[in-house]
Amino acid sequence: MKSLISRSFIQKIIKSEIKKDYFKKIHTRFPPYPNGYLHIGHAKSICLNFGIARKYHGKCNLRIDDTNPIEKRSFERYVHSIKKDIKWLGFNWDGEVRYASNYQEMFYKYAVELIQKKLAYVDHLDQNSIKEYRGNFNHIGKNSPYRDRTVEENLELFKKMKSGLYEEGRICLRAKIDMYSPYMILRDPVLYRIKKNVEKSDDLRCKKFKIYPTYDFAHCISDALEGITHSLCTLEFRENRRLYDWILNNISIVHKPKQYEFSRLNLEYTVMSKRKLSQLIDLKMVESWEDPRLPTISGMRRRGYTAESIRMFCQKIGVTKQESRIEMKVLESCVRKDLDLFSQRMMGVLNPVLLIIENMKQDEEHNLIIFRHPKNRKMGVKFLKFNNRLYVDKFDFLKKDGDLDPLLFEKMFRLRHAYTIEINRIERDKQKNISKIYCQYKKKPMDQFFDKSKRARKIIHWVSAKYGIRAEFRIFNHLFTEPYPGENFLKSFNSNSMLLKQGIVEPNLLDFQKGEPFQLEREGYFCIDSTSDYSRNSKLIINQTVSLKRTKDE
Ligand code: ATP
Ligand code: MG
């Protein structure tokens, strides 16, 4: 498996560190916050962290960042999905799954150490005052009146905080760094706070704790405790690195990991924040975290994307420090490229209209033998029955504007894998829609039977009306009408992001597993949806994975 890191700046750093013998074995980690399912942005981070570990024969931990109170039930569901998605992407973590909450005692111990070193203090300012005292980029901050408490006083108060004597927002532990620092992050950042919602819900993990470390405090210590060598995160943590290093340099921890930042993945016409994704789910605008329209790994899997295509995509976009916006077609081309290699070619009609072959007897039947894959004949053959009533796609007989193609009777059509036909007449209903097409077919070579001036211009796909299977197609479009939906993303939700079509497919599709990819010739790549239940509904539910790129002759 190719890794995403082959041309990354991170690899350059690692190579030079290896030369200088900086570390024995590389050790990375993937630290998701369990507030939702993983998305393709996480896939970038997974391919990077696990990919580096694999390339340099090191290790990569999976650490659930669960130092905050989280509802138990959703916690378990999210952790389960995180593990499943990482494995599905083809990676495995070193040893057991780690939980940052297991390090609570150590976080507390190091906080006490900072207090003892006069590098942390308990502050009684409320949250608004803390913000006000901190100043901004243009104005330096000012010291809290509680900044110079004695070590004893601080220790006593911190102990009381831990035992739950205070309300949320009234008291916190802050690092004593520099309120005049040009870096906002160093203006006495909060290390520990109280969360009162813990008291209210019965269904919470970490309920026994009254105080919770901030992300910045817990993250660097967790990395150090696990012996992480390279802590890779996204660019918005660039400034936090100063605090990361400050904390590790001021506590008695031997191992000092280093943080490196890379740009996060931004993909057009979708949103990637779990907060936004869960809003779409809560508002029932999409079905669940596994909705095939979502950029979640589980949604993409259900839609038919392969793990290889996602890894290929991550490899293609690379790892840089430049913020960039990636077009959806980059991802789609990776999906097509991978699916093309092994997807069986099938026939299915999305907009069926009946085609009647007038010069063929009703009980006549031809057995066709067809390669399952034109380029990979090792995949074997399949059988199809051909008879006088077929379904074809009505759009093959219409012009782009929806009118009947005036050259219809001039043209000849070739039925894919079968015979050539010539249209005799077309029947239309009251609304002028095509309802039936009558034609004649030729069994013999073209010259012997048909007018030579006519050429078989178009190859069309078909399904036997007698043997075809009913199918409901789910055709997916962009989730949003804007390439970058921003904070107002709900407003640009694409109400046509999923279109349903009632069509018909060849009976061989009954042998397919749910999720197994196939190509519907001239249409695209598809798979049977995980919820499809043919025995109950006598129709297949089929997801469109990705359309085919239009070829020149279409
Ligand atoms: P979101 O805001 O999308 O919910 P997050 O950053 O809060 O994501 P975490 O669960 O904390 O999600 O992320 C776990 C890891 O995945 C982090 O190391 C984070 O940097 C990385 N990650 C998250 N989103 C992206 C992205 N879009 N591109 C690259 N890496 C990402
Ligand atoms: Mg986030």
TrEMBL record:
Residues forming coiled coils: none
GO molecular function, one term: glutamine-tRNA ligase activity
EC assignment: 6.1.1.18
Domain tRNA synthetases class I (E and Q) anti-codon binding, first and last residues per copy: 459-529
Keywords on record: Aminoacyl-tRNA synthetase, ATP-binding, Cytoplasm, Ligase, Nucleotide-binding, Protein biosynthesis
PROSITE patterns: AA_TRNA_LIGASE_I
Signal peptide residues on this chain, from the entry's feature table: none
Domain Glutamyl/glutaminyl-tRNA synthetase class Ib catalytic: 25-340
Reactions catalysed: tRNA(Gln) + L-glutamine + ATP = L-glutaminyl-tRNA(Gln) + AMP + diphosphate
Domain Glutamyl/glutaminyl-tRNA synthetase class Ib anti-codon binding, residue spans: 344-441
Database matches in InterPro entries: aa-tRNA-synth_I_CS (IPR001412), Gln-tRNA-synth (IPR004514), Gln/Glu-tRNA_Ligase (IPR050132), Glu/Gln-tRNA-synth (IPR000924), Glu/Gln-tRNA-synth_Ib_cat-dom (IPR020058), Glu/Gln-tRNA-synth_Ib_codon-bd (IPR020059), Glu_tRNA_lig_a-bdl (IPR020061), Rbsml_bL25/Gln-tRNA_synth_N (IPR020056)
Cellular-component GO terms for this entry: cytosol
Biological process according to GO: glutaminyl-tRNA aminoacylation
A Pfam family: tRNA-synt_1c
Family of the protein in this entry: Belongs to the class-I aminoacyl-tRNA synthetase family.
Name under which the protein is recorded: Glutamine--tRNA ligase
Species annotation: Riesia pediculicola (strain USDA)
